[in-house]
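Sequence in, structure out. Go.
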Amino acid sequence: MRIAAGRLFAFFSFDVGYEIDLDRLRRELPEGVRASMSGRKIAPAHVQYSSPPLVVPLEDRDVMLIERPVRSTVSLRVHEFGAVTTVFGMPFDGVELASLPGITAALATGAGLETQARDVLRQAFPRIAPAVSRPQLDGSGLVEDYFVVQVARFEPPIAAEALLAEYREVLARAVHCETALLSASETDDVLRTAVVYTPDDLVVTDWNVALISDQDYEEALNVLELLNVQLLELRFLDGMLDRRINSLYEHVGRGRRTFALSRTVVRVRELSELRLDTATLRERLTNALKLVGDLYLTKIYARTAARLHLDEWQRSVDGKLELIQKISDVFADRAATARAELLEIAIILLIVIEIVLAFVR
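Output:
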């Protein structure tokens, strides 16, 4: 069994700022088009982006795919909440199905494509930067990658359910990036994400690799790219909140100073802005794609989100926001106490001045 016709897609998502004005960027990059969610598999469910990303095609380039050069299409997918994904799309014909686990394992552990993705973003960023609020190209060094093997045709031809039944162990190892044999229970657990919508299509996803056996694959590809971006942004928020909480502990441990009222007030204001910015970004992430109905894309999204543990990341971010709220309350109490003490000191000084003036007269 081999892949007679197919493509390999590689996503590398980066955080480049707080927000991106897509309307302004569309004027700066007229070649960009808004992504859409409209296809034969999603009717009659309501499926759409709340704010579709801007897809910007770039020049094709030669990339190194597991130590061999391959001609690849290149594009950028720009999201309004500050994320940009570099997308490589390259031919993947003539690959033996049995060799797929070794290929995906090499992709997951190699850094060659990531380096090239960073180069693409670095070269394109000057054109994007004017539309970015609070730009930061490095984005704390975070990157999320995801690989999708899209198969248009197997040789010999095989139905989706037959493929899932006869080659389940190989498929499980391929999306799990595992060259060693898996146990039957682990194989069943990996293939729990499998979606068979028609007799001719199959989608199996895992934490870093997905296999799509279908000629009409664009909508599923869009969903997987968005999930990758959501994971990136949640990781970014979690790391940023960790750093802020650690610095706040140092300030809390220094104790209260009566005459440091202005610093305390500024810190309370900064924490309020941090909570607002984080909550706003988190809300945009969770509402980026509207999925209503238990259909094809909804299943892919829900099952892959569970595999990526997005709920756990969201709970982690929410927990740290609650902790920051408590720390903010501590600073607010200190500020209120400092104001009261300053008011008492002012009253005492006024009384002393009145007494002195009385003696002087």
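Check: The longest helix spans residues 310-360. The chain is about 50% helix and 20% strand.
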